[in-house]
Each structure stands twice: as structure tokens, then as C-alpha cells.
Amino acid sequence: MTFVGWVQVLVFFALILAVTKPIGLYMYRVFEGGEAPLGRGLGRIENALYRLCGVDPRKEQDWKGYAFALLAFSTFGVIVTYAIERLQGHLPLNPQHFAGVGQELAFNTAASFSTNTNWQAYSGESTMSYLTQMTGLAWHNFTSAGAGICVALAVARGFTRRGGPGNGKQLGNFWVDLNRGILYVLLPLSFIFALVLVSQGVIQNLKPYLDVTTLEGGKQTLALGPVASQEAIKQLGTNGGGFFNANAAHPFENPTPFTNLISLFLIFMIPAGLTYTYGRMAKDARQGWALLAAMSVLFFAGVAACYHAETAGNSAFAGLPIHQALGNMEGKEARFGVAASTLYATVTTDASCGAVNAMHDSFTPLGGLVPLVNIQLGEVIFGGVGAGLYGILVFVVLAVFIAGLMVGRTPEYLGKKIEAREIQLGMFYVLVFPIIILGFSAWAAVSPLGTSSLNNNGTHGLSEILYAYSSGAGNNGSAFAGLNANTPFWNITLGLTMLAGRFLMIIPALGIAGLMVDKKVVPPSLGTFPTNGPLFTVLLVMVVVIVGALTFFPALSLGPIVEHFQSLHGKVF
Amino acid sequence: MSSKAQSVGLFDRAILRQAVGESFRKLSPRMVAKNPVMFVVEVGSALTTLLVIRDLIVHGADQPPLWFTGAVSIWLWFTVLFANFAEAIAEGRGRAQADTLRKMRKETMARRLVNKKGEAIAWTELGSAERSPSRGGAGTLPGSPNTIEEAVASSSLRKGDLVVVEANQLVPGDGEIVEGIASVDESAITGESAPVIRESGGDRSAVTGGTKVLSDRIVVRIVSDPGESFLDRMISLVEGAARQKTPNEIALHILLVGLTIVFLLACVTLVPLAKYSSLALSATAIVALLVCLIPTTIGGLLSAIGIAGMDRLLKKNVIATSGRAVEAAGDVDTLLLDKTGTITHGNRMATELLPMPGVRVEDLAEAALLASLADETPEGRSIVTLAQDKYASAAVAASAAEKGTFVPFTAQTRMSGLDLAGRQIRKGAVDSIGKYVTAAGGKAPAELAEISARIGDGGGTPLAVADGDAILGVIHLKDVVKAGIRERFLRFRAMGIRTVMITGDNPRTAAAIAREAGVDDFLAEATPEAKMRLIKEEQAKGKLVAMTGDGTNDAPALAQADVGVAMNSGTQAAKEAGNMVDLDSNPTKLLEIVEVGKQLLMTRGTLTTFSIANDVAKYFAILPALFMVVFPEIAPLNVMHLASPYSAILSAVVFNALIIILLIPLALRGVRYRPLGAATILRRSLLIYGVGGVIAPFAGIKLIDLALEALHLV
Q: What is the ipTM for the molecules in this complex?
């Protein structure tokens, strides 16, 4: 680990801390402030959209109504995307004349983009037409991110509204939240940052691919396309689906260390800001900062571990005349180096983004363990836009429950009692991960349907399987690679994993909000355990780590952990 | 209180013996199924037993050795037995506690009033003759041609029956006096030997079955059917039979079941995941891993904790009608406390002598002493004590008093005193003494009014002392706050509980006492309606309110309060309305009830944390042992350097079982509650039970491993 490497990490984190309050405050104004924040023009568009869709923006929904609207909207998204993919051969903006996408892959991709996962079992440049990329996929980059923010807002309202029983169980209006999120937050920000990216050399065009003669005289086809506009929202919405297969390692997507920093910044910006928005909604900014602190602790633990493991280099090279002063550079871009690559790997898996600028598959076993664990902890370390906030709030419920019992009171959070029903829904939420990740991984590990796709055998192959399902369940979308995921088995199981990892978790989260909004608010006393201080942060971190570790430690010890000890003995795969 | 209901030692021999038997009886799947965590363990135990049987018949080469499967199986059964034992011992202690209460339920003969046809009669059917207070007379009631007595067993009395009880007879059942007045010895319940007065038509009309009438004759209306009295309900609660899970307990159960499912998934999927690496995990090992990981410690002790909580309360002579009420007590935000009896002693006492200008304080003390020597009221006695203790010179005059003539207090004069050798010494209300002095030709000095007003402002009562036509000074009488109550309220403030004093005094007096006692707030000139309003206001703010009460007019408030503690001496209506009854009729008990409630939750919380924290060490014991066969490189993960894979797994299983036994005392006694802020308590608990819970099993498993190795068992 080098000083300069840590400076990169700290500069990045300082930027996030600096932006948390302004963006959080801005989002508070957008969603809770009432007035249109960006001038009359956008306000008119917003109102016109409501009239067009027949939505009454003043009418709020209870948790069931909210969940139903979200599910209906997402189902619609899956169907439309599936249709565009299947029919792209007959649709315009297809200069490479790609045929329609196969049905399993089309299902997988539709599920993937609707759930903000952006798992890609295909190479974009050789499978998807420009139209599919722009309307089928980039569209989801906005709407799935917007939907995530909606759920976070609804859950936050459930926790923070202080009406008490009989004063309405409303959590907001899904259509209004979605509209405002896209119109006032995602679109303006991605517009600005797309231009910044273009200025740095990220390409943006609609031309056919370019055939060029290389310096060595060989022929090469350069894939082109509207990249910058997708790149900005891909990071900002923690989508992560690359225009190109190489994702952010591709020089047209992520040409310089500066664009790399911008990408990282965009990934954490909204999740960090939402914690502040939440604090404002709770009328106690420290409630938000406590959540951010817990996320930050977990983030630094991940970066430190990953960076350390990758700097140590590959133990299999010990004794060989191989220069490893830079650390393990296999699968990493020379223009980023170990520090920026491990930081990227940590950030993208913390935040369920899934964009990658290095091959996680080529990390050392422990270096690769970090992204995997980050995902398995529930995508709550900043987390996906919105998903991180509602995810950590579910863990807050569990943490408060255990803490509350220990201080001898029925547990309370923000003055609202945590009771059996909330714990029940919280446990449903927690159970989704082990069921789908461990369940499908166990199946894939013993079935030829699963193992036939592996490029590596041994423990590393098991890591690849675990990573794939974790990535799907966590709606992360990054791949460990080394796995041919474009088979019917993988496309279908991963498609289901992504849908379950999104919606089976959103429903209990909204359910908890629906219960919480209807609760009496007990004024805090000395006997109430404070949830806005460092002690709570520590407790929350412990609960997140313990739930994740206890669930996945056995499986992980058969994968990356054993692999680590094997590699110390020179055994590689 | 002289004595509590006889307390039972933590490990009474008889209870232990009975509990051992009970733990086997509780192995019945139907009983274990109530506790999903332990049910999983029992299924695991049964499964490993089947494996042992299979291995006895045909032992496959790839199977772990028979001794290992056998040992794991035995210890898994022990795990279930230990959990059953914890519950049985808690029940046993509760039952022993209940038995001491039940002893007074001895079968007695009751004298039931019936009409001529032998049918029970209702109170309203009693003729006016019977309803008028009558004293004495056995057999049929005089002048009541329609009713006769019949002797029936007390257990056959039904609700609404009328019974006659006379001196030296036991009250046959819980009831309310509808006629008469009697002194009753309630020492069987309260341990208090002084008899109490119980009479019809007031707030002291309730009598409890098993208590003894010492004088007079009363007619009692029985208020509960057999098996439904408070005591019966309480007995069933501590015995666990009728125990329903409390809200927090249900929530915790859900959490534990959720965690169990998580571990079930983690362990079951481990088999195929290991198979991928050509590693065949034995069923015994997987069951052992599963049982070690699921929260058996808290799962096994959960019901024991709940029963022990009720038991602790019973030991404090408080009967709760539901576990829910005990839990709510821990959540209480506001305590409403009656001033008299709870905060103050209830009698005003002399605390100071204030002489008029030109009068020596010794002379005032002497006069006050003389005027009070024959005064047997608590106030009079307190004046004597004050004069003798604080102003020693006054003691010389004491013998002189015997020669004087005592002038008793009358409602007309509103003073009392002593005529002695030509001196007329009087003490009494300031205005009465003023008039007395003026009549005698003297004049009240201006300071009298001034001092009296000052005393009044401070919440006290001034009592003037005159000798003939001269006013000597003023005695300061005040409501004396009980010793230690202020510290108690400080503890409550530290817990975040607000105390509100309820008093019939005027606001000025109330404020002074409130200040002295250190309560947070007070309700002066309180009426039952005002009390009710206060409770509703607090509840509207989302707070939980606890209160004590004994009168019928307290009943609505008791019912409205989240925790209503009725005094056993109170009326039946009050007892029905509240959710707890204090047999000692001691309103201060509320404070202890709150602590018991908090302890209950804390014990559950800390043991849950401990149970989950334990899993870290168990992973480090078992997983390397499981994987070492195929992956010898993983050896460094065996941080405890356990002797062999089999020893590692067995040690973890043994630890997992033994820790339940080791924690039974903690579960029964409860975690100690200290009145610190919530954050401090949490920090301590996390350190002790969280960090301690991570470390303890490392040491424990290693020790067991060493022991197994030393005994050449592995």
C-alpha cells in the first residue's frame, strides 16, 4: 500500500462527504419540499406528465398501494424491454444488423435492467442494437434507479412521519416520487456529468463500427456508440451495465484516472446524499449521519482489506523472477493501478453498482473476497440508489430490537416501538439472501448445468458461482467473470435471483414502513437508547457484519478462504 | 413488612430432583414443538440416534467412527434436556413459591347463607335486618326468617355466594365485605403481623381467602369461582401451564426462528457446496454444526427467563395477572405515586420549634412538651420526641406533667394542653390559640402571623403554643418525606422515568413536598377525575403510565393505566381493574415492579447477544475440522489448535450444551439492573455479553478439547 494510493482513497471519500449534505438537502427539497426546485419550466413538464398519465399528484398511497404501483411499473418495464430485445432485428437504429436476442438471455437482461442489477450475460457491442441500448436498457438506468429512490423515500417516510395511529398510513405517491426523482435528480445530474465525461474523451455517437488498421498492420473493428450519456447514468444510478463488455476498463468508457474518480464519485453520491435526506426527514440530521458513519466504517474496512491483499501480490509468484512491486496487476488497467482498481472494486460492490474497471476474477483470493462479502452484507454499504437506505433501515430495525432488549425497554426507533410484526418482516428480508444465493449456488455447484459453464475448476470455480448469485441477488451486476453465464440455466436462475433480490426485499421493507407509519411516537427519555451516536453506529455495523458473516462464512470458507490458504501453498486454478 | 413469602433457594434439592424428572417428560415432541429452536435440536438428536443405530448394524467405511456419532448424539439429547431442565427448574421454583401461597388455601368449612329452599341468595335479597350492621350472634341471623346458614366446603363456593365469617375463623375465599367490620390477620399473605381493619362499604372492603378474622362478624360476598381467583391465576402463570408469550417474547421468538432458518440454509447448502470439492460431509457433522449455530442458548432459556420473572415478582409479594403486564412495567415512562404512604409517612411530624421574640427556645420546648405529653396522636408524640431529643433541658420538666390535668382536643376548641400549678399551657391551630390568648387578655405578637405564613408556604402546618396569655412560639409540623425516597427517584430519573406525585393537598403544600422528595411533577388537589385525565394526557403523548390505587374510585384510572397495581387491602373493584395486586399493600413496591420488568427484557436481550456472539468461535472450531480432510492447507484456521477434527466438533457440541446449564442461574436471577442511562447500559452489555460472548467459547471449547484429550476420549 502506498501513500499516494491512500491519498486517492481519501480524496474520493472527502468528495463524498462534501457532497452528502448539499445533494441530500437538494433531494429533500425535491421530494419533501413541495415546490418544483428547478424553475417553472421543469415544473410545467412535471404537471403535464401527471395530466397525461391521469395521476393526481396530491393523492398519496399506503404501503400496499405504493408497492402495487412499483410492481406494476416494473412488470411493465420487464415486458417492454423483453419485447424490444426480441424484436430489435426489425427495429431501427441497428446499423450492425443484430438479430433478435434469444429468449432466456432476453428474459435475463430484462430482469437485470428492471432490477437495477445490470448483470450482462452478453457483450453489448456484439448483441444489442443502439435502439435496445438506448431505449430498452438506458431507459431502465433511469427508471430502476428512480424506483429505488422511491422505495427509500417511502420507507423513510414510514419511519419518520409522526402522525400516529389514525392519521393516515400514507407513504407518498409512487408516480410523483418516480417522476421527480428522474426529472429533478437523475436527468439533470447525468446530463451535466455526461458532458464532463465527453470532455474527457468518452465517446458519444451513433455511427456504425469503425474498421481500422492497427500500427502492426492488423485489421480491427472499433465498437462505437452513445457511450457518455449511458456512462453518467450507469454510475449515478448505481446501474453498472457497461456499454461495452469490458465495462469501465474500456478506454472509451473510462479513459483517464480523472474519469475514474468521477465515476466513483457518481456511484456514492446519491446513496450518501439520501442518508442526509433521511436525517432531514427525521428532523434530526444526526440520525442520517449515524447511518452514513456505519456505511463509512464498512467501506473503509473493505478498501483496506482489498487494497492490502492486492498490494501483497500473488503468492504463487513468490521466488519467480516476476516484478510485483506494484502488487497484483493481473486483470488491472495500467492507467489505474492497484489503488484505483481496488477502490473501484470496493465502491462498485458496496453500492450495488456493478461497473468494473478491473477483473475481480483476477484478484487474489482475499482481494476477491472483499467485493463478494460487500455484496453479501446486503448491499447496504452506501448501497444501490435507494436500496442502500431502505436496506440499512431494515438492519436498523434488527439492531434496535436487540439493543432495546438489552437496555430493558421495548425497543424503539425514532420514538416508534419495534414489535413482532416488524421483526417478522425484517427476518423475511434477511432470509431472501441465504435462500437464493446459497440455494442456487448449491444447485449450480453439483449440477453439470452449472459447473459446465466454469472456466476455472477447484475452489476458484466455487467462488465464481457464489459471486454470480450474490451479484444477482444483491442487484449488483458485476461479474467475477470466468463464468459463461449465457446458458439457459444461468440466464433463468440468475434472472429469477435478480427479481427475488429486488422485489422480495422491497415488499417486506415497504411492509415495515407501512407498520411504522401507523405507530404512536413515544417522546425520548433517558431510558431510550439514542440512535444518532457512535455507539449506535458500532452496533449497526456489528449487526450487518454478523448477519452477513454468520450466513455466508461456511460457503465462503469453501471458496475464497480455502483458496487463499491453497495459494499460500502454491496451489492455483 | 416483616417477612416476604418464604423465598426458595436458587437450587433447592427437592426442586432439582423434580426438575430432572420433568426434563425427560418435556422431551415429548409435542411440548418441544412450542419452541422451534429446541425442536430443531431434538430432530437433530433423533437423526443422529438413527445414525448410531444404522452404524451399529452396518458401518460404512466412509462414516465417522461410531463413538463420535454416539457422543454427538448423546450430547445433542443433553442439549434438549438441559433446556427442558432450565424450564422445569424455573417452573419448580415458581410452583414452590405458589405452594407457600396455596397453603392458606386449605380446605375450610364455609358458612354459606342460603334461603329456606337451600338455594344460594344474592346480596340484594338480604333483608334490611341483615344488611344493617349486626354484631355477634351465631346460627341463623336474628330477625331473618328467610335465610339460614349451611356448612359447605370452601372449594365449592361460587361467585356471588354469601358467607358468614366470625372471630377466629378463616375467610373461605376472596371476597368483599357486604356487611360488618372486623379486624383481620393477613399475615399469611403479607407477612405483616399487625391486624388490619376491614369493613363494608369503603375502600377497605376486600378480604382474601385464607386470612383469619380476629374479631367481630362479617358477611362476605365471594367474588370468584373456584380456580379463578387472583392466586389461582398467578399460580398457573408461574407454573407455566397458562403462560402466554408476551409481546416482546413473541418478537424475540420470531428473530430466533428467523436465525434458525438462516443457519438451516447455511448448513444444508454446505453439503452440495462441499460435494463440489469432492468433500463428503457426514450427516452427524452437519447436524452438530447446525445445532451449535442456531441460538440454542437463548432458545433453551427463553421460557425459563419469563417464568423466573413472574417468580421474582411473586417473591416481592406482587401478583400479576399476565406476563404482558410485567413486561409493560419495564417500559413505563411515567409513575403516578400517591403522596401519602408512598412518598411521605402519612403523618405530620414536628420538625422545628420557633419561639416568639423574647422567649427562650428552652421555655417553648418545655411548654410544647408539657402540652403534648398526654397527647397520644402521632403528631403529639412527634412533638415530645422533638422536645426531648433536640432540647434536652425540656426533659427536666417532664415529671412535673404527671401532676397536671390534661385538656383533651375537641373539635370546638381545636387545641389541647395541660393545666399545671396555675399555668394553662395550650397548643393548637394558630387562629384558635390567638383567640384563646386574646380572651385571656394577652395579645398575639405580629411575628406569629409572619412565622405561620412562612411555615405554610413551605408546605408545613404551624401549631401555636401558649402559656396563659402569652404566646411562646410555633411548632413546625410537616409531612416528612420517607428516608431514601429521594435517592430512589433519582434512580428513576436516570432510567428515564418521570415521577408524578398525586396529592389532595393544596398546590402550595404539594409543591413544597414535591421539591423535597425530588419528584418531577405533582398533581395537587387531585380528584379521581383529575387523575384519570392526567393518565390519558400522558398516554396521548405516547407514554406508558403506571400507578397504584386501592379505592373503588381509583378503579377507572387503574384500568386506564398501562400498569395498575392494586393494593390487596383495596376494594375488589380496584383489584379487578388493575393488572397487578400487591399483597403487602405497599405503594412503594411500584418501583421494584418496574425493575423486575426491565430485568426481564435485559436478560433476554443479553442472552440473545451472547448466544449469537458464541457462533464465531463455533465456526472456528467446526469448519476447519470439517474441511481439513480435503483441504489440509486450511489448518491455520484451526486457531484453537484442537486435537482432532472429531474432538473439535464434539467440544463445540459439549460447550453448546453445557453453556445452557451454566447460564441457568443468570436466567433465573436475571441480569442485574443498574439505573444508568440507556447508552451506558448498552455499552456495558455489549462489552460483557457481546465481546465476552465472542471470547468465552474459544476458552470453553479449548478446555473441553483438552479434557477430552486428557481422558483419551478422542
A: 0.93
